[in-house]
Amino acid sequence: MRAGTGLDTGTALDTGVAEAATSGLSAEVAAASVPRASRRRRAGRWRRALLAAFVTGAVVIPLSAAAQPEIPAPVPAVLPPLTAGTLDEVYAANRADAAEASRMAGADGDDRRAAAERGMADPDRDFLAFDGRGSGQATEVFGDLAHADRVAVLVPGSDTTLDTYDRFRATALNLHRQLTRDAPNSRTAVVSWLGYRTPRTVSTTVLTADRADQAAPQLREFIRQLHTVTGREAHITLVCHSYGTVVCGRAAAGLAVSDLALIGSPGTGVDSAAGLHTPARVWAARGADDWVGGVPHVSADLFGTTVGFGTDPVSPAFGAQVFAAGDVGHSDYFTPGTASLANLARIVLGETSEVTHA
What we know:
The chain is α/β, with parallel strands linked by helices and 358 residues long. It folds into 2 domains: 1-68 and 134-358, 3-Layer(aba) Sandwich (Rossmann fold); 71-122, no CATH class. 37% of the residues lie in helices and 15% in strands. The strands form 2 sheets. The protein has an 8-stranded mixed sheet with strand order 1-2-4-3-5-6-7-10, with helices on both faces. A two-stranded antiparallel sheet has the order 8-9. Helix 1 (15-30) packs antiparallel against helix 2 (36-63), helix 3 packs antiparallel against helix 4 (111-120) and helix 5 (165-182) crosses helix 8 (339-349). It is globular, with a radius of gyration of 20 Å.
């Protein structure tokens, strides 16, 4: 996995889960020779067995891991209402918070967190929100947000924290550079929204929508605030990656965005694009080397909990506009020179007729 090119920073699947997925897929192929009703029953059993294997793999590994100590940080500053006129004040307050959080983390002996937060306190960086407590949250702006008429908001997937934030930030920078190169006279901005507590890749939380349910109201509120800065006429594109697509799926209903792009998605929790209840155009893509393509896109009730996220967004049954991503892997959708990055820029710029389809 290449650092600096993807939203998720965790490993794809643990070995046990990957083997279970492979076994399940092989079984479904073998079942092709039996009558249709029998195939349906067997496929249902395999889906539930696979999901049970995912739960087992997700539970066993974290139990052996050491608990992470709480990282000290200041309570976030009380900020003025977010408007175009208060942006400079908000940016300054969040940089000050990042500097104090860095000092506190360093005093506590956490050099890695201290270094990450010291970088966030740089005068050239602009944050709409910052919280150094726990795994941390941050919302950073790239470009002139106050005058932007097209804004891309990136929503990350699992394992994105302040400690790994630079990798997430790199994706936003790559998209902003692509937009600037493709349309140098356009008024665009990119926002990296780490506004929720992401699940760990190897954990039970990544298999359910619990974290997404917690995050959805925060994302809705952020989009509302964003429109107070840019105006209602601004075109906002949500670019959602991996578990971030579950977050966007939960937040989508009635959200004032023009486009919703789902990349590397395990599913959104609904059966179709229509089920998102969004006025936005819904796009989806998956790279040929993305491991998510090998994971069954199903959901089932296990132990009283719904596990899995349902229909594959790149399948015809879902009904999204599927665009080409090339041969990228799960963490490479924003790599310069890729079809996925080029198409994402076209979607943000409203050049939808130029988007290449899969």
